[in-house]
Amino acid sequence: MPELFVGIDVAKDTSSAQGIDRNGKGRFSLTFAMDSEGFMQLWKAITEHSKDVSEVSAGVESTACYHINLYSFLTAKGVSTVVINPLLIANFTKLSLRKTKTDKKDAMSIAQFLLVHRETISQLSLSQDLQDFRDIARERESVCNLLSAHKVEIKRLLQSTFPELERIGDISTKVMQEFIAAFPSARLVNMARPKAIQKILQRKGVGTRLTYTPEDLIRAAKQSVATISPAKEFILQGKVRSALRN
After folding, report:
1. Which of 81, 94, 102, 241 could pair with 74 as two cysteines, CB 3.0-4.6 Å apart?
2. Do the beta carbons of residue 82 and residue 121 sit within 8 Å?
């Protein structure tokens, strides 16, 4: 059983730590800056109140990102450190009927939580690997949402500048996007030379056989009900070129 339990309430600039022994008695209370000097102040307090760091159990609440550097620092020093879901601490605090809310009190709650759940704390904690996985999953979801919104915006603009284009070919393909980047409207297709359009469709790297021809595009442009809008053409070009870069 650990001899020292350290609860740490993490914030962006300044954090609070509370150390208690296995009987729940307070050993130290500390407010420290979230920088190298502050981390060393915390480390000094831990080593002054424990004979062996392997007998120390530290816990931090999972935050957006602020806990990560401190977690890495403590684990590198050999301190058994766990990242705890804030909901668990919140529920634990409610059960303890504690109404006062301060950073020091929150740090004490985390320390007491470690003491009470010392036998099962590893099952209740969030590993850094799991947090990293969740961060990656959230980032992937965010990127997918951005790309989806980007595609919707491209389609919306095309409804004004060249609405017939979607019926001719898949606008998500690279060759069609390159065509739109060069000729973002029916108006510009009508102004272009047929050879210029053909050159776009025959660029190297097109691995699939197209189901439409330059003549199909020119014919659709001539019969188009598109609205003339140089501003929308410019915006559409920018969005498609951005999609091509990604």
Report:
1. 81
2. yes
> Which residues are CB-contacts of 88 (< 8 A; sequence separation ≥ 6)?
113, 124
- Closest among 159, 173, 182, 158 to 211, alpha carbons compared: 173
Residue 125 pLDDT > 70, yes or no? no
Phi/psi zone of residue 205: left (φ > 0), alpha (ψ -120 to 50 degrees), beta? left
Report which of 38, 56, 54, 36 is spatially closest to residue 46, judged by C-alpha positions.
56
CA distances from 140 to 133, 143, 145 (A): 10, 5, 9
**Beta-bridge partner residues of 19:** 6, 28
> For the whole model, what pTM was predicted?
0.55
> Residue 78: is it exposed, middle or buried by C-beta count within 10 angstroms (0-12/13-18/19+)?
exposed
For residues 28 and 39, what is the distance between their CA atoms, to the nearest angstrom?
A: 15
Cα distances from 62 to residues 19, 21, 70, 177, in angstroms, run 19, 23, 11, 43
- Contact criterion met (CB below 8 Å) for 21 and 112: no
Residue 17 phi/psi, 5-degree rounding, is: -130, 145
Highest mean pLDDT among 82-91, 143-152, 181-190: 181-190
